[in-house]
Design goal:
The protein has about 280 residues and is mostly helical. It is about 50% helix and about 10% strand.
Length: about 280
């Protein structure tokens, strides 16, 4: 009867009606396993099976433990409940992409986060992803000369959409993009203006100790795609360049680290788990 109720509940498209069948299945399986160790262990096995089945399928190990503990009021079974819930959670996380409660929503096209996690941008500093060889040019350089250097493929000017302009002391003076250069050449044709005249002198900056998340917020607020990296918040000395590609590199690196996990031999014969 419980099997039929469970199938009907899941097939109806709702998330209700699965709790009691899960507890029944878990209790029955746990009692069968516990009975192998002796008839007096069948009750403990049933409790552990209930906690494991509920905590694993619903991805809520503490909920499974406390729910079963509330039924018995016996704190002596806590170690068994803890082991069964954690092991069940580990198995379902490795083998199933989603819990039983969110699978139907996912099949309808709604993205459901499986677990809470810290944003990688909050854990990464600008110094870890910035380009320490920024594209620098003197602020007095003409548009024509800078365009010619970019056209010749001069590194690192040709590798970036923006060029950081510095004064005679090496301090930040401004920023000019390729769009600024092309627009000026199209309008005037001679390119005799300086890059600082056609670029931006009031530049938003970041510094190496700032998190990538904070730098990204600056870029999104100002609707820009690059930031000069200065030595400190109160300094104008340019030490790096942060672009959108650099920020995405942090995400790619984190994804690659999570994709391959060395787990050693395990019962299913795999040595690497691909986390989807």
């Amino acid at each position: 009867v419980k099997s039929v109720i469970w199938a009907v509940s899941l097939g109806s498209g709702t998330s209700g009606g699965v709790l009691a069948p899960l507890l029944t299945f878990g209790g029955a399986i746990g009692a069968l396993i516990g009975a192998q160790w002796g008839p007096e262990q069948a009750g403990l096995g049933a409790l552990a099976g209930m906690a494991g089945m509920m905590g694993g399928t619903m991805r809520s190990p503490l909920t499974g433990m406390l729910f079963v503990l509330e039924l018995t009021h016996d704190f002596n079974v806590l170690p068994a409940l803890l082991v069964s819930s954690v092991v069940a959670l580990g198995v379902t996380v490795l083998l199933l992409r989603r819990s039983i409660l969110t699978e139907k929503l996912a099949r309808r096209g709604q993205h459901i986060a499986r677990e809470y996690s810290v944003d990688v941008f909050e854990l990464t500093r600008v110094r870890d992803v910035m380009d320490s060889r920024p594209p620098l040019a003197p602020s007095t350089i003409t548009v024509a000369e800078l365009s010619a250097r970019i056209a010749r493929g001069e590194v690192p000017l040709a590798q970036r959409q923006g060029t950081v302009l510095v004064d005679e002391t090496g301090g930040l003076a401004g920023l000019v993009t390729r769009s600024d250069l092309m627009r000026t050449l199209r309008v005037s044709g001679n390119g005799l203006k300086t890059a600082l005249e056609v670029g931006e002198s009031d530049v938003i900056t970041t510094h190496p100790d700032e998190t990538v998340s904070e730098a990204l917020d600056k870029m999104l607020s100002a609707q820009i795609g690059r930031l000069p990296v200065v030595e400190s918040p109160h300094s104008r000395r340019v030490v790096g360049y942060l672009g959108r590609a650099d920020i995405l590199a942090a995400r790619v690196r984190f994804t690659e680290e999570e994709r391959l996990r060395e787990t050693g031999p395990w019962p299913f014969g795999a040595t690497e788990i691909t986390k989807k």
